Amino acid sequence: MAGTLLADSAILLVGILLLYVGAEFLVAAASALALSHGVKAATVGVTIVAFATTAPELFVSATGALTASDSIALGNIVGSNIANIGLVLGASALVRPMEVDDKTLYQHGPFMFTAAVALVVLGLDGSIGTFDGVVLLALLAGFTGYLYYKSRQEDDVALPEEVEMDEDATTAGVREYVTLVGAIVLLLAGSRALIDGGRGVLMAWGFDDLFIGLTIIAFGTSVPELATSLVSAIRGEAEFSIGNVVGSNIYNVLAVIGVVAVAVPISVSGSTIGYEFPVMLAFTVAALAIMAFGDRITRVEGAGLVVGYVGFVYFLLP
């Protein structure tokens, strides 16, 4: 028993590491390829980079739904969205209070709220099926088109430091394609390891798939957002920390649940409708309210978000 638990724990840690490295490679390669094909940096930042940082959730949710349980897919996304606000945004504010960019709040904030509400409404009947997935993907297309339209209207902006391109970015070639393929392989391997290791560890303690998805797997797939946002906060790049969370939450619901639901119908339990969905909406509203009424996220507010996340996990315990 102890040996099996130790092995599962090691597999879990390897999965988290592979997801993080794979996401970093994917962001760099996808950005270089887009820029080499003449896509503006602003467009890359709000589309490719935002979607690429959601890749761990996509791979883990799709792999979980197809090979393990659809509860892992839904739990991963709901848990990740709560973790992104409570843990990632809260911890970033604890590191350094963050000024709120009006563009992030008023242009992207409504989409984050709409995505959360759409997920809840579509899941109230107890399942998120193919039609629901198509609706979410249609909203995703509208959101991406809106971002592209706005980026074309504005002056080009620099990418975050983590994904700045070198002088040869405009001549990206074989190396970037190889990196892209390698990143996908790492994400696939990391997804499998995270699911196998996470399930093994928590099922040994008697937890079900929904709890596993909401907690340890959601945390594992949020590692790229957590690391990136903390580094950005330390560097004083608050707009990227906040934008990273808002963008990830939008893509988590519209892209990940949309894709998974089209492939495999997702069942929604009564406990999810009664507890996890309301908590996700509460965190979404709280984050937007803090950003709207204070124009900044203070350390006290950050601490409140972290405490709220700890409370959420505590009340999940049987």
Write the layout of secondary structure elements.
Elements: H1 2-36, H2 41-52, H3 55-67, H4 70-95, E1 98-99, H5 102-123, E2 127-128, H6 130-153, H7 174-203, H8 209-221, H9 223-234, H10 238-263, E3 266-267, H11 270-294, E4 296-297, H12 299-316
Antiparallel strand pairs: 1-4, 2-3
Write up this protein.
By secondary structure, the chain is an all-alpha fold. It is built from twelve helices and four strands; from the N terminus they run ααααβαβαααααβαβα. The strands form two sheets. Strands 1-4 form a two-stranded antiparallel sheet. Strands 2-3 form a two-stranded antiparallel sheet. Helix 1 (2-36) runs antiparallel to helix 2, helix 3 packs antiparallel against helix 4 and helix 4 (70-95) packs parallel to helix 9 (223-234). It starts with a helix and ends with a helix.
Summarize this, please?
This protein has twelve helices and four strands, in the order H-H-H-H-E-H-E-H-H-H-H-H-E-H-E-H.
Mean pLDDT: 79
In N-to-C order, the SSE pattern is HHHHEHEHHHHHEHEH
* Biggest beta-sheet profile: 2 strands, antiparallel
**What is the helix tally?**
12
